[in-house]
Amino acid sequence: MDSSFTPLRCLSDQHALELFKDDNVETVTSVEQKKVERSVQEVFSVYQQNHTLSQPTLLRDQHYAYLKKGLRHLSDAYECLDASRPWLCYWILHSLELLEEPVPASICSDVCGFLARCQSPTGGFAGGPGQHAHLAPTYAAVNALCIIGTQEAYDVINRQTLLDFLYSVKQPDGSFVMHVGGEVDVRSAYCAASVASLTNIINPTLFEGTPSWILRCQNWEGGLGGVPGLEAHGGYTFCGMAAMMILNKVHMLDLKSLLRWVTSRQMRFEGGFQGRCNKLVDGCYSFWQAGLLPLLHRALFKEGESTLSMRNWMFDQQALQEYILICCQNPAGGLLDKPGKSRDFYHTCYCLSGLSIAQHFGSKDFHHEHIVGKEENRLAPTHPIYNICPEKIAQAIEHFHQLPVPVHREEAASAPELP
Ligand SMILES: [Zn+2]
């Protein structure tokens, strides 16, 4: 492991050289960028004044208290997320597994009961009990249940109706709509591929045409847009790339141009990532963007790329950790987008997930840790495709792969009847 006493990048004398230069052409976005850099610079210098030893600390106890409370009670501010309740379960449970904080069995059982009530009678999960099934909460619910990883959790998932639901949102061109009558975008392909692969319901027709459709979302920038023809965006790029990994078709993408695009999204001064070109840093892209680098590393390695490092991802892992630890922690627990923003469970989950990606390179024999600050800052590793801890993925796959792949009922019904 690397020394914990590596001097902080953000406190070095040369760091100010990384500040944004507008070449005397002021625009709305250049003004915003400078404003953010000033606030980040202030946070870095306050940190420097208050700490003689430059070892930023992950506020574990505070984050734990914030997350534990959220599992039982949410303030009125979360009313707007009433249609995203399985997401709250996933964001909190995944944050807790990264912090290696166990969840009491009784709470796990309550979460299973709640998610069972979110499951639609026609398959898939809805944002809350009695709502319509939607691919995003379906992804979140299946991930949350796999994190819990008990028989009770696995038994919540009705695999036959889940498959029916996936067919009901599948489009003739290979794409998926988010819900029946809803919009198409590349998130849906990832959500569908993720839940179908975890629960072992993939059959030969389910993803027919999907890789070619995803490929159409990659544009001249190198990243992927939400649908063909749109601007490249971190969240959509992650979804498209991760779906291609699951479907074993990642070689269809232009990996080098994707690599160039994503590495240019790490901000020189702040150390965190922006979601799109010319946008501001945001803590949640610590996962959506940095999480692409382990996927690219694996894909390029498989293609026989010989110049890959066996110790580091192709982004500045130290700079990202400094940004998350110094700029994105609320002192009372929870993590956030950027200084001045408030904490929430979404940013807590994706800042911690990005921190974990930046701390752990590779897996098994090639595992190498680079932890900024004390050893206590170490989080559990996360699986870069599913964003759940790898043991839970292995356990879920082992469980569901003992079960037969359900038959698509429409196909079965249209098969010629025997005399
Ligand atoms: Zn964000």
From TrEMBL:
GO terms for biological process: lipid metabolic process; prenylation. It catalyses: L-cysteinyl-[protein] + (2E,6E)-farnesyl diphosphate = S-(2E,6E)-farnesyl-L-cysteinyl-[protein] + diphosphate. GO terms for cellular component: protein farnesyltransferase complex. Its cofactor is Zn(2+). Residues 58-388 form the Prenyltransferase alpha-alpha toroid domain. The keyword Zinc applies. Its EC number is 2.5.1.58. Binds 1 zinc ion per subunit. One of its GO terms (molecular function) is protein farnesyltransferase activity. Coiled coil: none annotated. Signal peptide: none annotated. Keywords: Lipid metabolism, Metal-binding, Phosphoprotein, Prenyltransferase, Repeat, Transferase, Zinc. The keyword NADP does not apply. Essential subunit of the farnesyltransferase complex. Catalyzes the transfer of a farnesyl moiety from farnesyl diphosphate to a cysteine at the fourth position from the C-terminus of several proteins having the C-terminal sequence Cys-aliphatic-aliphatic-X. Catalyzes the transfer of a farnesyl moiety from farnesyl diphosphate to a cysteine at the fourth position from the C-terminus of several proteins. The beta subunit is responsible for peptide-binding. Heterodimer of FNTA and FNTB. Heterodimer of an alpha and a beta subunit. Belongs to the protein prenyltransferase subunit beta family. This is Protein farnesyltransferase subunit beta. It comes from Anguilla anguilla (European freshwater eel).
